[in-house]
Prior knowledge:
The structure holds two protein chains of two kinds.
Chain A: H1 2-9, H2 15-62, E1 66-67, E2 71-79, E3 86-105, E4 111-120, H3 124-128
Antiparallel strand pairs in A: 1-3, 2-3, 3-4
Chain B: H1 5-11, H2 17-73, H3 82-91, H4 103-108, E1 111-115, E2 134-143, E3 154-157, H5 165-172, E4 175-189, E5 192-212, E6 215-221, E7 227-231, E8 246-263, E9 270-271
Antiparallel strand pairs in B: 1-2, 2-4, 3-8, 4-5, 4-9, 5-6, 5-8, 6-7
Amino acid sequence: MHRIKRIKAKAGETLVEVMASMFIFLIMFGVLEGAISYSNSALKKNKEIRADNAAVLEGLQSSEETVTGSQKKIRFRAADSGLTQIGNVVFSVDATLDSKQVTYTDAEKQQQNITFYLYGPVAASSESGQTDTEGGD
Amino acid sequence: MRHTGWQQLKANEKKGVSMAVVLCVSAFFIAFAAAILYTAGLMTAQSNLRLKEERCYQLAKSYAKVLDGELKAGNTSSGTNFYMFANSFLENSQYAVYNDETASSAEATKYKFVADGTNIEDLSKGKIEDGYGNLCISLAKEKVGSSAGDLKNGELDVSTATDYTAQIEALQNTVVRQYVLMIGVTAYYEDASYTYTAEYTREETYDVKFTYKGQNIIWVANETGGGVWKVGSTAGNECVFSDGGKIEYTYQTSEPLSRKFVEDTGEITITGGNGDAQN
């Protein structure tokens, strides 16, 4: 009896326990490996996006060609400070809807075009002939 | 065979430890993997946001330039244009002066105006054309000094030999800078936004009325220099300063002679004119 107790006291893990532990660890390593490989590909993609962004912004700075678009009267309504309620129209501003085309070379050495939109002032001559028909409301 | 409770615990002390260790290590791995995924996702989202922010910047800046043009053009033909509204905003006591003592008071004294058709659930959705996002303008005003009422009236010495043209121009060019208008243009595009701010000081000048012994007199300058004071109007009789005295002048503060917005930070309240006209 005493000897059995001694043997039990020295007993290690069973094979099933060892196998189960290894299985769980393998799964964990798989998860970790997946996360790391995803992270790596995201990092690579990030670098590409950043390089593209830099090329776009550089192109935007050097691009001076602004295409003047249609004219629009934008009406503005009073709102509360939290922008949760909107009141009456209080003023309106005429502007042209302009655009700027930027051509850049992306990370894969392909020529790409991107359009940036911006507002422009209405020329004095066309302001006098402005009609109040277009959007905003 | 007599086992006490303590002995039982002692005998089983190592049972289940393996599983606890495995679970703890697994939890660590999962947390670590989740952190890596989250960071990678966040970086990608930020990279994608950069171009949208640039779009917002371009929209906000260009619209601020449009408003700048409106203020500087000073178009008074339409009652609902931005120049007219900016003036009424500065003069109307319904709009309180900007107070930045607390965050809530600063927010409450910044007045917001959104483009017609704005969806308050999603501010990036409006009725301006596709690609142009949506706009919100915030206005605030600050009083930087004295008002037109602080302009001091005064007197000019009478002398028939004096050319008053320069003195009169100096008086009429006395500039009153009472208000600073702060304009913030926020452009919303999808999930990005950018606010472009600018500050303007409104400068006003006022006409000056001259009287001599209770009569209105008007200076009529000659093309060749010099000039004469006429009584009542430019076609009136020449004023005779027989018994000396002084020419009194009063600023006509009810209606400004000129009014313009200058993009800067107002420092001086009243400049120009001679020392008497300043406070």
